[in-house]
Amino acid sequence: MEEQKWDQSMGGFNAASRSQMAEAAAGGEESQRTLYPYVTGTSVIALKYKDGVIMACDTGASYGSTLRYKSVERIKAVGKHSLIGGSGEFSDFQEILRYLDELTLSDHMWDDGNSLGPKEIHSYLTRVMYNRRNKFDPLWNALILGGVKMGPKGAEKYLGMVNMIGTHFEENHIATGFGNHLAIPILRAEWREDMTFEEAVKLVEKCLLVLLYRDRSSINKFQVAKITTEGATIYPPYSLKTFWGFSHFENPAQGAVGSW
Amino acid sequence: MFRNQYDTDVTTWSPQGRLFQVEYAMEAVKQGSACVGLRSRTHAVLAAANKAASELSSHQRKVFRVAEHAGVALAGLTADGRVLSRFLRSECINHSFVYESPLPVSRLALRLADKAQVCTQRSWKRPYGVGLLVAGLDETGAHLYYNCPSGNYFEYQAFAIGSRSQAAKTFLERRFEKYNDYTPEQLIKDALSAIKETLQGEKLTSSNCTVAIVGRKDDGTMEPFETIDAKRIQEIIDSMEAAEEAPTEPSAMQQEEEGTDAAAPMDI
Known about the structure:
Largest sheet of chain A: 8 strands, antiparallel
Mean pLDDT of chain B: 90
Number of helices of chain A: 8
Largest interface: A-B, 16 and 16 residues
Mean pLDDT of chain A: 88
Structural class of chain A: alpha+beta
Region (Disordered) (chain B): 242-268
Number of strands of chain A: 13
Oligomer: heterodimer
Radius of gyration of chain A: 23 Å
Order of helices and strands of chain A: HHEEEEEEEHHEEEEHHHEEH
Subcellular location (chain B): Cytoplasm; Nucleus
Keywords (chain B): Cytoplasm, Nucleus, Proteasome
Main location (chain B): cytoplasm
Strand order of the largest sheet of chain B: 8-1-2-9-10
Helix content of chain B: 25-40%
Number of strands of chain B: 10
Largest sheet of chain B: 5 strands, antiparallel
Strand content of chain A: 25-35%
Shape of chain A: globular
Number of helices of chain B: 7
Domain Proteasome alpha-type subunits (chain B): 6-28
Distance between the termini of chain B: 44 Å
Strand content of chain B: 15-25%
């Protein structure tokens, strides 16, 4: 074994030996950086409405182009006042949930009447994501943080986003992934202040339908969640009705005769 | 307290289960000039009696702003107090950086207490010789804590520390039950009256006391921690003295007060 190693380090610089040399030099530690995402969730969309914030996404997680997992919950409640939705690498999302668990647990154990609101959690996540990016080891996610908290001037709604490079902002409506391109234009045109829950769900479903038709990594199984001063509710998954009866689908070669 | 064979080291217990060095550190607090703190549901006030080393020097600074929502008044070794104020400021800033929100006062008081406790359990350290009244505002309302050199801390409605603070405590004990509903002005007046008790005959003016307040107004806007300027303090003192001339004022009944009351009309 030792002879082999000796030969390789003396010999040519191929990829294998280089990484082995790096390993030896670093004292046996291989690179632990995130290089690519493996199991990914697609878009999440969210918007503020009259009583709080509504968030929705599909329940699919893809492994490259394979639709590997079809019942994945990508929106979770955080503490008493917030919801988090994540797209991107699902294992990183789970790790983030673990960090948030630790945070909310210590907050809960204080039992002093103070609790972490959505703004605090968003700020915390921004610090985490940005610091990881600076180490060239990002958590490969785009996260949406929404919530409502009672403040001195009444119920304060909050909706913000942070992504893998640490970019963060607050808005009345947010989307990740393909949602940025397909849902945001709809939300910009049709979002209004103080929508009712029913109106908000209709708007969200309109966006989800577009994403279902046009995003190949989305599936027809969605979860809608809301957060109000009463707490978080994540509704059971359901499907949307789709229409495929276009004449072009019936006779695809009509306009373009091909060999197949 | 008398010297004994168990008081050389902070890490030596006495047979009765006492740490004498820690108790001696608490004596240092009693040597400092008085500070009082009191709070309502929405506001907290700190007041300190200014003490100057000599007539030639300026008075020692005893009230420090720690963050927009909190501040401290200290009694004892002012140098130790300055260092602890810097620590508190840094804790508040670090919390704000990560969470973009103010550090709740109870958690601030805990961090200070834990820091003080460390010095009671290391043979190469000595306890901080300063007692701090920590006043602040968070989402659960206004709070007042007293942190002592032993590492203990308690929440108070009203409290006084430093030399002759017992007179102030007696004054506050009679009135604290109503403080939750006091207006900020009433709190300031009571704070000044409490400081007056500790001056023992000396006339209370804006130059021998410092008052600071933090709170939340009825409309929800915050009044950040701020020392009230001398001119306004003098106005409040003057209005208090004018009210004291009237015999219905309950504080005029107190024995300690009678001496100063008799002095006031003669001074004019």
